[in-house]
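Example record

One chain of 326 residues, shown exactly as stored in the release files.
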Amino acid sequence: MTKRILQPTDENIERCARHVIAGGLVGIPTETVYGLAANAADDAAVASIYSAKSRPSSNPLIVHVAKTEQAEPFVADWNDDCRLLAEAFWPGPLTLVLDRSPQVSDLVTAGHKTVAVRSPAHDVARRLIERADRALVAPSANQSGQVSATDARHVISEFPLEDFPVLDGGACALGIESTVLDLTGETPLVLRPGAVTVRALRNVLPDVEVPVIGEQTNAPGTALRHYAPRTPTVLVESQRFDERLDELDEGVAVISIGPRRLGSQHVLVEMPKDPDDYARCLYAGLREADESDRGLIVVEIPPWSGGLWRAINDRLQRACVPPLNP
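Predicted structure tokens for this chain:
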């Protein structure tokens, strides 16, 4: 299994760059989650991502670039707002949704009139993009709708029958997907919360708004059900947690904030109290609970305000639909 996992040496970066140029797929680390990368200008390679992930054709991909000059050919207008945001947050976990240029493939945009672009902050991803000398599409390296991968081994477990290489960049620093900001309307809209907070965005563009997203939009990661374990998962408020567990006849996997005393029939996955640390552990925790062979995962609802809690709750809500509550 680990033969597919490559250390990010210059030789292996070169090998993977040649593989991408030839139309192949490569698993890559980013600061957010691991991505499944392909040449953004190669329709056959892009189509192979959809096939490998069993990804719906309605779900667009994010174009990853190492420098803003690589993003400009994909968009109709790289305007002052784009420049200000790129200067403030690139490289980093901010995806911009912009009007597309005519040359962008419908496969990349899922037929939308917009395109999503970002510049990852991970050294390995940037080295690959620079060595391949082309923009890459790189959705999360997992089966569509399932828990995102934050470790090279997760990628292998998601694609055991594939033979694409995976560059090992260690555990992802942030552990949660990028913030997605739509700049195509009169008002900038956060379509997906992430590590670049609304407060940080408003320091650059004061009129940023956060709508309620109830269905797949023109941005990736906004489907009603996403980031989900295979085991049914429910959210429970902290004050009802012990009561809810007492009502259950069988053992469950419990994801709690901090330590919790449980009966021996349950499996505990203890999560950090700090939102940054929680985000880094989120998907690994969901995977651990999913692999516990229990029939239900019960998640303690985190706080909603402060730091990354909004983004964490967004992922958990989508992982638990339906139902949102037990």
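Notes: The chain has two domains: 2-204, 233-319.
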